[in-house]
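Is this the right way to post structure tokens for a design question? Let me know if I should format differently. Anyway, here goes:
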């Protein structure tokens, strides 16, 4: 059986899995896999760390996407070739609304397309929208676990610094195109910044795949520019939510 180019895997290695949990961080992929049954590492190549595990006796893939749209698009394309149809992203994020606190979970219903990769799948007039049922599962998971969550629009940027209008940088300068952009997104009721959901949502919607995204809030940008380094507890809560959501999706698929 042919292997996909970057992940170096073939369909038979996924054991019939059709759902993948997709964090950005490769080490988070391992931490997620360790919480599931019978996890094995299938591949560690570039930013893509891929595990196969079982959740309630059903096969699930965990695959890191790395940071940003280009690498995310490769992971999603190759996983789709291998049989994955639902992608649940679990990320970290910076909130831009004052009422959202560190540690809250943000469920992205749709994303502002501040990326480049999504335009390789559909024109800018096409919405970066999540899959309704997968997103509903994320919300149900938050409610069942009892974590504080907000559902709404995310700004998804190719860059962490200028695209998210950060001035606490080497040059201290933000390109004119992004000056004032954070305030604009705040006024348009955007919840947060992260870096993969625009590509994930656009490509999955365009390709007939299902995608949802949650993220744990590391920093509130109305109070602080750069997140604190230690955020294990926030990540643990977000992992619990995505695992519960995966369980709900798998149950719904069986019914
Ligand atoms: O924690 P992850 O999933 O990597 O997500 C967020 O963190 C990274 C930036 O620090 C970007 O990938 C952003 O989307
Ligand atoms: O502020 C943040 C925090 C995490 N990830 C982002 O993309 N932005």
């Amino acid at each position: 059986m042919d292997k996909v180019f970057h992940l170096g895997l073939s369909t038979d290695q996924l054991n019939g899995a059709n759902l993948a949990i997709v964090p950005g961080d490769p080490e988070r992929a391992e931490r997620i896999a360790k919480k599931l049954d019978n996890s094995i590492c299938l591949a560690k190549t570039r930013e893509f760390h891929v595990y196969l595990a079982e959740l309630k006796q059903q096969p699930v893939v965990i695959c890191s996407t790395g940071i940003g749209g280009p690498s995310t698009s490769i992971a999603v394309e190759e996983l789709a070739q291998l049989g994955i149809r639902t992608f649940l992203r679990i990320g970290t994020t910076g909130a831009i609304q004052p009422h959202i606190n560190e540690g809250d979970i943000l469920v992205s219903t749709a994303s502002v397309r501040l990326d480049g990769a999504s335009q390789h799948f559909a024109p800018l007039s096409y919405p970066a929208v999540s899959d309704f049922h997968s997103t509903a599962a994320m919300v149900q998971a938050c409610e069942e676990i009892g974590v504080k969550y907000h559902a709404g629009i995310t700004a998804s940027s190719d860059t962490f610094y200028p695209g998210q209008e950060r001035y606490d940088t080497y040059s201290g300068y933000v390109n004119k195109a992004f000056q004032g952009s954070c305030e604009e997104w705040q006024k348009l009721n955007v919840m947060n910044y992260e870096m993969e959901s625009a590509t994930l949502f656009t490509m999955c919607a365009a390709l007939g795949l299902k995608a949802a995204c949650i993220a744990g809030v590391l920093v509130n940008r109305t109070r602080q520019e750069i997140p604190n380094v230690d955020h294990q507890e926030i990540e643990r809560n977000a992992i619990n939510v995505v695992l519960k959501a995966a369980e709900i999706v798998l149950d719904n698929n069986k019914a």
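Format looks fine. Someone answered above. Worth noting: The chain has one domain: 11-254. DSSP finds six helices and ten strands in the chain.
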